[in-house]
Amino acid sequence: MPATDSAAALPKVPVSVLIPVKNEKANIKAVIQSVAFADEVVVIDSHSTDGTIEMAEEMGARVVQFDWDGKFPKKKNWAIMNVDWKHEWLLILDADEHITPAGAAEIARIVTDPDSLDGYYLNRRFMFMGGWLKHCGYYPSWNLRLFKHALGRYERLDDVGDTGSGDNEVHEHVLLRDAEGKELEAGWAKEDFLHYAYPDISVWVEKHNRYSNWEARVIEGVRKGQTAEGSLQASPFGTPLERKRWIKKMAYKLPFRPFQRFVYHYIVRKGFLDGRRGFIMCTLLGFYEFLGIAKAKELQLQGERKEAPTPEPTARAAAEALPANFKTLPEAKAAESRTNESETVAAASGATAES
User: Fold this and answer.
1) Which residues contact residue 321 at a Cβ distance below 8 angstroms, ignoring those fewer than 6 apart?
2) CA distance readout (Å), 270 to 142, 194, 266, 278, 292
3) Nearest alpha-carbon partner for 138 in 152, 123, 154, 126
4) pLDDT digits (tens, 9 = 90+) for 37-56
5) Is the entire prediction scored with pTM above 0.70?
6) Which of 270, 295, 271 is nearest to 284 (CA)?
């Protein structure tokens, strides 16, 4: 865990911090300590029940509750647009992420420098199975996390509502634009921040099972040629993120993707240099790819069943659907006639016997 004494000793910096949470009691104290330099810390909570709220308030954070209606926007976008932020600059951290003392000092320099750009990418170090994943495609991992809140919004990938991935953004990127929609330039911070996302394999599997619901929606949207307004565009000649989105879009069309995903991360991105933890991570990434593909196919089949016209029942199918004792009108009349005749014969026989 990172040291926090140096960060706490820094003077308060004019920056607001957004931390989205739900039941993060195990992590909330450390993340708030790592941003002790910030003048404002706001925790956006989804009605935690494990003591997260109480601990966050004890640490001096302001807690705001978020109720998702299953539609756009999700938690972080909602917070950016609706919270009354004290400062112009906003830093976004998940509960399992920490700012280092060196990172805190750099953020202080950025937000107090009048010549700073409107946003900055921060590089993230993933911690997995007791160590830093230096390869596997997990480093460098640039994220636009420090920006002027009036200018930044998470992209809108689709309008499908609840994907089953939760009320928080998953892999959406922040788009930095002015009031006219023009893309603004962002800088690149020198200091890394730390991400303790997966304390064990079970947490990795649980998170990626939810993430694959989101991934499946995106794959299905690509198959249908859907592109939502306000989303990051896929372009081989655009920004690094646009090129990455284009590569991913092209990859959706390739065969044997789970195996190719493993090879890409383990061989091309040199996951083998991370030893055993690299092999395990790359294998898990191949499994994640398989989950996304399988769930996308499931969505496709569900859509086809909804769109398929209901077939008219054949005469035989209609007859088989009737109860076993059902009779047509002629059959019912014939049965009634036979019953009446039987009753007449029985009555006549009874009268003969009496005489």
Assistant:
1) 313
2) 18, 21, 5, 9, 23
3) 126
4) 999 999 999 999 999 999 99
5) yes
6) 271
Amino acid at 50: D
Length in residues, the chain = 355
Span 192-201, mean pLDDT? 93
Token pair, residue 238, equals 């655009």
Q: Are strands 13-21 and 152-154 parallel, antiparallel or unpaired?
A: unpaired
Nearest to 40 by CA among 21, 10, 15: 15
Segment 126-148 shows an average pLDDT of 95
Residue 277 confidence (pLDDT) above 90: yes
For residue 48, the tally of other CB atoms under 10 A from its CB is: 20
Cα–Cα distance measured from residue 132 to residue 272, given in angstroms and rounded to the nearest whole number: 14
In SS3 terms, the chain reads as CCCCHHHHHCCCEEEEEEEEECCCHHHHHHHHHHCCCEEEEEEEECCCCCCHHHHHHHCCCEEEECCCCCCCCCHHHHHHHHCCCCCCEEEECCCCEEECHHHHHHHHHHHHCCCCCCEEEEEEEEEECCEECCCCCCCCCEEEEEEECCCEEECCCCCCCCCCCCCCCCCCCEEEECCCCCECCCEEEEEEEEEEEECCHHHHHHHHHHHHHHHHHHHHHHHHCCCCCCCCCCCCCCCHHHHHHHHHHHHCCCCCHHHHHHHHHHHHCCHHHHHHHHHHHHHHHHHHHHHHHHHHHHHHHHHHHHHCCCCCCCHHHHHHHCCCCCCCHHHHHHHHHHHHHHHHHHHHHHHHHHC
Q: Tell which residue, 156, 151, 150, has the closest CA to residue 184.
A: 151
Instruction: Dig out the tokens for 290 from the structure.
Output: 């398989």
Q: How many CB atoms lie within 10 A of CB 163?
A: 22
CB 122 within 8 A of CB 102: no
Give the type of residue at 30. A
